[in-house]
Amino acid sequence: MSIYDIITDRSGVASAKWAMRTDEMKRRGLMPFSVADMEIRTAPEIIDALTEAAGMGIYGYTMDDGEYRAAVAGWFKRRHNYTFRESDIICTGGVVQGLYGLVREFTK
Hints:
Layout: H1 22-28, H2 44-55, H3 67-80, H4 95-106
């Protein structure tokens, strides 16, 4: 059995996805697609890495050190056989900032 086979009921635990009452959403025929909030457990490798990072006790902001870009480029190569320059990756502080940059770049 995989972690992806176990579905967790996230209603009633202040989950952003389920903030609106579930019965009201069902009555209105709505599905909560507004946030990337999952009902599956996080992979053990990610939990271990986060636990190790949290153990350092420093929760400041970090910058891309090149290792991240290499990992992303490697994943695309292995997964999709797609190659690009690591320098083509632009890191942002979040999705909204990334979308803002794209709009500015590709519109007048």
